[in-house]
Specification:
The chain is of the alpha/beta class. It is built from nine helices and 13 strands. It has one domain: Glycosidases (TIM Barrel), CATH 3.20.20. The strands form three sheets. It has an eight-stranded parallel β-barrel with strand order 1-2-4-5-6-7-8-13, surrounded by five helices. It has a two-stranded antiparallel sheet with strand order 9-10. It has a two-stranded antiparallel ribbon with strand order 11-12. Helix 8 crosses helix 9.
Length: 285
């Protein structure tokens, strides 16, 4: 069985301050995020020239793949009209190929949050099919960040090389080990190959009774100094090192493609690093 990979998102608002250790342990870096326009163009307002250059520098330093995230929460307004228009879909796919080849990216991650009905979900499958058709001969990767509760047509899963399962932000004590297992099993029951699934894990904590209150793991560790076995502190629920290692072992046992992290800029430094804990789990036979 091959080693599971680690994919980490890095948002534009963390990029300037993100300084990873040499060979930090992520295999894929997803730079978040550009937006899609309804006409099928790429809006890079949040990722100016220096940000794209920084992404390429990190790719070279870490020896990882580099993907461009398109979309995200409050950044998905262009998708419905784009996906419904055959000409816009074609224009978008061709533009993504040109961007990746010109800017040194290895592929694209679409983060449409979220198709609101079956019509939009069907169009999402058509959009992914259009992109896959031009990505495959270009040797580019196509992934998508999907919520575990989404009911999407088979075409969505068929056209993806990688499915980034957002197995966090569940109600209550979010992202428990048990809920992660259930989220993965739901996809497997749909017939999604295990090797396409990247299990998403949080590098932050939320309050179960006040869901809009969140802290990064770096903040949690600085304030509460939780031990590696601890998943709750100060009313916040999170994934400590032992829970993340348990999820990593589960991913390995199930033959998943990897672990996906939201997001790298939230990690604690030094010995407390969750990314370090993931690496320790991956190194155990």
């Amino acid at each position: 069985m091959s080693r599971v990979q680690v994919t980490g998102y890095l948002p534009d608002y963390r990029l300037a301050d993100f300084v990873p250790a040499p060979k930090a342990g992520f295999d894929v870096l997803v730079l978040f995020s550009a937006e899609a326009t309804p006409q099928g163009a790429l809006d890079l307002a949040r990722l100016p020239v220096w940000a794209l250059e920084r992404g390429r520098q990190l790719k070279a330093q870490q020896g990882c793949l580099l993907l461009l995230s398109v979309g995200g929460w409050d950044r998905s307004a262009g998708f419905p009209a784009l996906a419904a228009d055959p000409s816009a879909r074609q224009r978008f796919g061709q533009g993504l190929v040109a961007f990746c080849q010109e800017q040194g990216f290895d592929g694209v991650d679409l983060d449409w949050e979220h198709p609101k009905d079956q019509g939009e979900a069907q169009n999402f499958g058509l959009l992914l099919g259009e992109i896959s058709q031009v990505f495959t001969p270009a040797g580019l990767q196509l992934s998508s960040a999907l919520a575990p509760w989404q009911d999407l047509p088979d075409a969505v899963y068929q056209h993806l090389d990688r499915l980034h399962l957002m197995a966090y932000d569940n109600p209550g004590r979010h992202s428990t080990y048990e809920s992660a297992v259930a989220d993965v099993q739901r996809l497997l029951d749909r017939g999604v190959p295990a090797a396409k699934i990247w299990l998403g894990v949080p590098f932050y904590g939320r309050k179960p009774e006040a869901f809009d209150e969140a802290l990064t793991y770096a903040q949690l560790h600085a304030q509460f100094k939780p031990g590696p076995e601890v998943d709750e502190a100060g009313g916040y629920y999170f994934n400590g090192p032992q829970t993340l290692q348990r999820k990593t072992r589960f991913a390995h046992e199930k033959g998943l493609g990897g672990i996906m992290v939201w997001e790298l800029g939230q990690d604690a430094p030094g010995e407390a690093s969750l990314l370090r804990a993931l690496g320790q789990a991956l190194s155990v036979p």
